[in-house]
Amino acid sequence: MPALILPDRNIIRVDGADAGHFLQNLITANVEAIRQGEARPAALLTPQGKILFDFLISKHGETGYDCDIRADQTADFIRRLTLYKLRAAVKFEQLADVPVIAGWAGDAPHGALRDMRFPQEAHVWRLHGSGAVLDAKRPAWDAVRIAHGVAESGTDFALSDVFPHDVLMDKNAGIDFKKGCYVGQEVVSRMQHRGTARRRVATLTAEADLPAALTESETSILAGDKPVGTLGSVVGKSALAIVRTDRVGDAMAQDSPLTLNGIAVTLTLPDWTGLSFKSDEATTPDP
Protein backbone atom coordinates (compact mmCIF):
# COMPACT_ATOMS: atom_id res chain seq x y z
CA MET A 1 0.00 0.00 0.00
CA PRO A 2 2.44 2.74 -1.14
CA ALA A 3 1.63 6.24 0.11
CA LEU A 4 3.24 9.68 0.46
CA ILE A 5 2.46 13.20 1.63
CA LEU A 6 2.01 15.70 -1.20
CA PRO A 7 3.54 18.89 0.25
CA ASP A 8 2.48 20.89 -2.79
CA ARG A 9 -1.22 20.39 -2.00
CA ASN A 10 -3.57 22.17 0.44
CA ILE A 11 -7.15 21.71 1.58
CA ILE A 12 -9.65 24.57 1.30
CA ARG A 13 -12.88 23.89 3.18
CA VAL A 14 -16.04 25.47 1.79
CA ASP A 15 -18.83 25.27 4.36
CA GLY A 16 -22.10 26.87 5.32
CA ALA A 17 -25.81 26.57 4.64
CA ASP A 18 -25.36 27.69 1.02
CA ALA A 19 -22.08 25.86 0.30
CA GLY A 20 -23.55 23.18 -1.97
CA HIS A 21 -25.68 25.60 -3.98
CA PHE A 22 -22.81 28.08 -4.20
CA LEU A 23 -20.38 25.50 -5.63
CA GLN A 24 -22.98 23.88 -7.88
CA ASN A 25 -23.43 27.16 -9.73
CA LEU A 26 -19.70 27.81 -9.98
CA ILE A 27 -17.63 24.71 -10.78
CA THR A 28 -17.69 22.02 -13.47
CA ALA A 29 -18.48 18.97 -11.32
CA ASN A 30 -21.94 18.02 -10.13
CA VAL A 31 -21.63 18.83 -6.43
CA GLU A 32 -24.98 17.21 -5.65
CA ALA A 33 -23.73 13.87 -7.00
CA ILE A 34 -20.61 13.68 -4.81
CA ARG A 35 -20.84 10.74 -2.45
CA GLN A 36 -19.15 10.23 0.89
CA GLY A 37 -15.80 8.49 0.48
CA GLU A 38 -14.91 9.86 -2.95
CA ALA A 39 -12.83 12.76 -4.25
CA ARG A 40 -14.01 13.98 -7.64
CA PRO A 41 -12.07 16.08 -10.13
CA ALA A 42 -13.43 19.57 -10.67
CA ALA A 43 -12.41 22.93 -12.06
CA LEU A 44 -13.29 26.58 -11.82
CA LEU A 45 -13.14 28.01 -15.32
CA THR A 46 -12.62 31.35 -16.95
CA PRO A 47 -15.68 32.77 -18.74
CA GLN A 48 -13.96 31.55 -21.94
CA GLY A 49 -14.12 27.96 -20.67
CA LYS A 50 -10.45 27.41 -19.80
CA ILE A 51 -9.26 25.94 -16.50
CA LEU A 52 -8.50 28.66 -13.95
CA PHE A 53 -8.15 26.23 -11.01
CA ASP A 54 -8.15 22.41 -11.01
CA PHE A 55 -8.75 20.43 -7.82
CA LEU A 56 -10.37 17.41 -6.20
CA ILE A 57 -13.56 17.96 -4.24
CA SER A 58 -15.04 15.78 -1.49
CA LYS A 59 -17.83 16.08 1.06
CA HIS A 60 -17.21 17.08 4.67
CA GLY A 61 -19.98 16.68 7.22
CA GLU A 62 -23.51 17.79 6.43
CA THR A 63 -22.83 21.03 4.55
CA GLY A 64 -19.09 21.20 3.89
CA TYR A 65 -16.83 20.42 0.94
CA ASP A 66 -13.06 20.02 0.90
CA CYS A 67 -11.13 21.23 -2.14
CA ASP A 68 -7.74 19.53 -2.55
CA ILE A 69 -5.76 22.08 -4.57
CA ARG A 70 -2.21 23.16 -5.42
CA ALA A 71 -0.69 24.94 -2.43
CA ASP A 72 0.61 27.81 -4.55
CA GLN A 73 -2.94 28.47 -5.80
CA THR A 74 -4.59 28.52 -2.38
CA ALA A 75 -4.72 32.28 -1.81
CA ASP A 76 -5.83 33.03 -5.37
CA PHE A 77 -8.53 30.36 -5.16
CA ILE A 78 -9.97 31.81 -1.96
CA ARG A 79 -9.91 35.31 -3.45
CA ARG A 80 -11.75 34.08 -6.52
CA LEU A 81 -14.38 32.28 -4.45
CA THR A 82 -14.84 35.42 -2.37
CA LEU A 83 -15.57 37.43 -5.51
CA TYR A 84 -18.51 35.13 -6.26
CA LYS A 85 -19.75 34.88 -2.67
CA LEU A 86 -21.96 38.00 -2.58
CA ARG A 87 -24.52 37.33 0.19
CA ALA A 88 -24.30 33.53 0.19
CA ALA A 89 -24.09 31.83 3.60
CA VAL A 90 -20.72 30.27 2.91
CA LYS A 91 -17.23 30.53 4.37
CA PHE A 92 -13.76 29.48 3.19
CA GLU A 93 -11.01 28.07 5.38
CA GLN A 94 -7.48 26.95 4.53
CA LEU A 95 -6.57 23.79 6.49
CA ALA A 96 -2.85 24.46 6.46
CA ASP A 97 -2.05 21.84 9.11
CA VAL A 98 -3.87 18.97 7.38
CA PRO A 99 -1.51 16.95 5.15
CA VAL A 100 -2.73 15.61 1.82
CA ILE A 101 -1.72 11.99 1.29
CA ALA A 102 -1.91 10.00 -1.94
CA GLY A 103 -1.79 6.21 -1.98
CA TRP A 104 -2.51 3.27 -4.24
CA ALA A 105 -2.77 -0.50 -4.34
CA GLY A 106 -3.83 -2.62 -1.38
CA ASP A 107 -6.45 -1.65 1.17
CA ALA A 108 -6.98 2.06 1.75
CA PRO A 109 -6.74 3.31 5.37
CA HIS A 110 -9.77 4.41 7.36
CA GLY A 111 -11.11 7.75 6.16
CA ALA A 112 -9.50 7.55 2.72
CA LEU A 113 -11.29 8.90 -0.34
CA ARG A 114 -11.32 7.14 -3.69
CA ASP A 115 -9.55 9.33 -6.28
CA MET A 116 -12.15 9.31 -9.05
CA ARG A 117 -9.68 10.42 -11.74
CA PHE A 118 -8.38 6.85 -11.86
CA PRO A 119 -10.17 3.65 -12.91
CA GLN A 120 -11.47 1.71 -9.94
CA GLU A 121 -9.07 -1.18 -10.42
CA ALA A 122 -6.10 1.15 -9.85
CA HIS A 123 -7.12 1.52 -6.16
CA VAL A 124 -5.87 5.11 -5.93
CA TRP A 125 -6.97 7.09 -2.88
CA ARG A 126 -6.52 10.39 -1.01
CA LEU A 127 -6.33 10.91 2.73
CA HIS A 128 -6.64 14.28 4.45
CA GLY A 129 -4.72 13.94 7.69
CA SER A 130 -2.80 11.01 9.18
CA GLY A 131 -3.30 7.28 9.36
CA ALA A 132 -1.21 5.93 6.47
CA VAL A 133 2.24 4.38 6.29
CA LEU A 134 4.33 6.80 4.24
CA ASP A 135 6.65 4.56 2.25
CA ALA A 136 6.67 5.96 -1.30
CA LYS A 137 8.61 8.66 -3.14
CA ARG A 138 7.32 11.29 -5.55
CA PRO A 139 8.54 9.57 -8.76
CA ALA A 140 6.47 6.50 -7.86
CA TRP A 141 3.34 8.66 -7.54
CA ASP A 142 4.07 10.43 -10.82
CA ALA A 143 4.54 7.04 -12.47
CA VAL A 144 1.02 6.04 -11.35
CA ARG A 145 -0.41 9.25 -12.82
CA ILE A 146 1.48 8.74 -16.07
CA ALA A 147 0.35 5.13 -16.39
CA HIS A 148 -3.30 6.17 -16.13
CA GLY A 149 -3.17 9.46 -18.01
CA VAL A 150 -3.97 11.72 -15.07
CA ALA A 151 -2.62 15.23 -15.66
CA GLU A 152 -2.32 18.05 -13.13
CA SER A 153 -1.73 21.76 -13.59
CA GLY A 154 1.75 23.06 -12.99
CA THR A 155 3.57 19.91 -14.05
CA ASP A 156 1.48 18.94 -17.10
CA PHE A 157 -0.30 22.08 -18.25
CA ALA A 158 -0.54 25.77 -17.46
CA LEU A 159 -3.66 27.23 -15.90
CA SER A 160 -5.79 29.39 -18.20
CA ASP A 161 -4.28 27.52 -21.16
CA VAL A 162 -6.42 24.38 -21.56
CA PHE A 163 -10.07 23.42 -21.74
CA PRO A 164 -11.44 20.68 -19.44
CA HIS A 165 -11.77 18.32 -22.43
CA ASP A 166 -8.02 18.66 -23.08
CA VAL A 167 -7.25 17.00 -19.73
CA LEU A 168 -10.01 14.37 -19.95
CA MET A 169 -12.44 15.93 -17.49
CA ASP A 170 -15.29 15.01 -19.82
CA LYS A 171 -14.32 11.36 -19.31
CA ASN A 172 -13.73 11.23 -15.53
CA ALA A 173 -16.92 13.00 -14.36
CA GLY A 174 -15.04 16.25 -13.77
CA ILE A 175 -17.70 17.93 -15.93
CA ASP A 176 -21.43 17.41 -15.64
CA PHE A 177 -23.20 18.17 -18.92
CA LYS A 178 -26.71 17.87 -17.48
CA LYS A 179 -26.57 20.20 -14.50
CA GLY A 180 -27.34 23.91 -14.71
CA CYS A 181 -25.06 26.79 -15.60
CA TYR A 182 -21.61 27.40 -14.14
CA VAL A 183 -18.77 29.72 -15.13
CA GLY A 184 -17.58 28.85 -18.67
CA GLN A 185 -20.39 26.31 -19.18
CA GLU A 186 -21.51 27.60 -22.57
CA VAL A 187 -18.12 27.10 -24.21
CA VAL A 188 -17.58 23.66 -22.67
CA SER A 189 -21.07 22.46 -23.64
CA ARG A 190 -20.53 23.69 -27.20
CA MET A 191 -17.28 21.71 -27.45
CA GLN A 192 -19.09 18.61 -26.23
CA HIS A 193 -22.07 19.03 -28.57
CA ARG A 194 -19.93 19.72 -31.64
CA GLY A 195 -17.21 17.19 -30.82
CA THR A 196 -14.48 19.77 -31.40
CA ALA A 197 -12.07 18.61 -28.65
CA ARG A 198 -8.81 17.64 -30.36
CA ARG A 199 -6.22 18.14 -27.63
CA ARG A 200 -6.01 15.22 -25.22
CA VAL A 201 -3.76 13.81 -22.50
CA ALA A 202 -1.67 10.89 -23.74
CA THR A 203 1.03 8.66 -22.29
CA LEU A 204 4.38 8.92 -24.04
CA THR A 205 6.93 6.10 -24.07
CA ALA A 206 10.46 6.78 -25.29
CA GLU A 207 13.25 4.51 -26.52
CA ALA A 208 15.64 6.08 -23.98
CA ASP A 209 15.36 7.79 -20.62
CA LEU A 210 14.01 11.30 -20.90
CA PRO A 211 15.71 14.24 -19.18
CA ALA A 212 13.98 15.25 -15.96
CA ALA A 213 14.35 18.94 -16.80
CA LEU A 214 13.79 20.37 -20.27
CA THR A 215 13.54 23.90 -21.60
CA GLU A 216 10.22 24.96 -23.12
CA SER A 217 11.62 24.55 -26.65
CA GLU A 218 12.72 21.00 -25.84
CA THR A 219 9.29 19.76 -24.73
CA SER A 220 7.73 19.81 -28.19
CA ILE A 221 6.73 16.42 -29.64
CA LEU A 222 7.22 16.28 -33.39
CA ALA A 223 5.86 14.28 -36.29
CA GLY A 224 8.61 14.89 -38.81
CA ASP A 225 9.15 18.62 -38.30
CA LYS A 226 5.52 19.36 -37.35
CA PRO A 227 4.65 19.85 -33.64
CA VAL A 228 1.88 17.56 -32.38
CA GLY A 229 2.03 18.06 -28.62
CA THR A 230 3.88 19.10 -25.49
CA LEU A 231 5.57 17.02 -22.80
CA GLY A 232 4.49 17.07 -19.15
CA SER A 233 5.55 14.92 -16.16
CA VAL A 234 8.50 12.58 -16.80
CA VAL A 235 9.62 9.40 -15.03
CA GLY A 236 12.35 7.44 -16.82
CA LYS A 237 11.18 6.48 -20.30
CA SER A 238 7.53 7.41 -19.65
CA ALA A 239 5.78 10.77 -19.56
CA LEU A 240 2.49 12.55 -19.88
CA ALA A 241 1.81 14.77 -22.86
CA ILE A 242 -1.02 16.88 -24.19
CA VAL A 243 -1.30 16.26 -27.91
CA ARG A 244 -3.41 17.05 -30.94
CA THR A 245 -5.14 13.75 -31.60
CA ASP A 246 -5.82 14.57 -35.26
CA ARG A 247 -2.16 15.39 -35.95
CA VAL A 248 -0.97 12.24 -34.17
CA GLY A 249 -3.56 10.24 -36.10
CA ASP A 250 -2.30 11.69 -39.39
CA ALA A 251 1.29 10.85 -38.44
CA MET A 252 0.32 7.26 -37.62
CA ALA A 253 -1.60 6.92 -40.89
CA GLN A 254 1.46 8.13 -42.81
CA ASP A 255 3.97 6.11 -40.72
CA SER A 256 5.65 9.39 -39.84
CA PRO A 257 7.98 8.93 -36.83
CA LEU A 258 7.22 10.73 -33.60
CA THR A 259 10.20 12.22 -31.78
CA LEU A 260 11.14 14.34 -28.79
CA ASN A 261 14.59 15.95 -28.95
CA GLY A 262 15.57 13.36 -31.53
CA ILE A 263 14.40 10.44 -29.34
CA ALA A 264 11.83 8.13 -30.93
CA VAL A 265 8.59 8.00 -28.93
CA THR A 266 5.19 6.37 -29.06
CA LEU A 267 1.90 7.85 -27.86
CA THR A 268 -1.12 6.07 -26.43
CA LEU A 269 -4.43 7.35 -25.10
CA PRO A 270 -5.63 5.99 -21.72
CA ASP A 271 -7.70 2.83 -22.16
CA TRP A 272 -10.33 4.00 -19.69
CA THR A 273 -11.28 6.97 -21.90
CA GLY A 274 -12.39 4.94 -24.92
CA LEU A 275 -10.62 7.52 -27.14
CA SER A 276 -8.51 6.79 -30.19
CA PHE A 277 -6.24 8.73 -32.52
CA LYS A 278 -8.16 9.56 -35.68
CA SER A 279 -6.59 10.76 -38.88
CA ASP A 280 -8.36 13.62 -40.63
CA GLU A 281 -6.84 12.42 -43.89
CA ALA A 282 -7.95 8.85 -43.36
CA THR A 283 -11.54 9.91 -42.74
CA THR A 284 -11.80 12.41 -45.58
CA PRO A 285 -13.94 10.95 -48.43
CA ASP A 286 -12.47 10.69 -51.89
CA PRO A 287 -13.50 13.55 -54.24
Task: Give me the secondary-structure topology.
Elements: E1 3-5, E2 9-15, H1 19-24, E3 38-45, E4 51-60, E5 64-70, H2 74-85, E6 91-94, E7 100-104, E8 113-115, E9 124-128, H3 138-148, H4 185-194, E10 199-206, E11 220-223, E12 226-235, E13 238-244, H5 245-253, E14 258-260, E15 263-268, H6 280-283
Describe this structure in words.
The structure is a single chain. The chain is α+β, with helices and mostly antiparallel strands. The chain has 2 domains: 3-190, Gyrase A, domain 2 (2-Layer Sandwich), CATH 3.30.1360.120; 198-283, Elongation Factor Tu (Ef-tu), domain 3 (Beta Barrel). It is built from 6 helices and 15 strands. Strand 14 (258-260) and strand 15 form a beta hairpin.
Question: What tags apply to this protein structure?
Answer:
single chain; 287 residues; alpha+beta; Gyrase A, domain 2; Elongation Factor Tu (Ef-tu), domain 3; nine-stranded mixed sheet; six-stranded antiparallel β-barrel; 6 helices; disordered C terminus
Largest sheet: 9 strands, mixed
The structural domain count equals 2
**Beta-sheet strand percentage?**
25-35%
CATH topology annotation of the largest domain? Gyrase A, domain 2
Calculate Rg over CA atoms. Answer: 19 Å
How many individual β-strands? 15
Shape: globular
What portion of residues is helical?
Answer: 10-25%
Give the oligomeric state of the chains in this entry, treating copies of one chain as homo and distinct chains as hetero: single chain
Which spans of ≥5 residues are poorly predicted at pLDDT below 50? 281-287
**Overall average residue pLDDT:** 93
Structural class: alpha+beta
CATH architectural group of the largest domain: 2-Layer Sandwich
Termini separation: 58 Å
Order of helices and strands: EEHEEEHEEEEHHEEEEHEEH
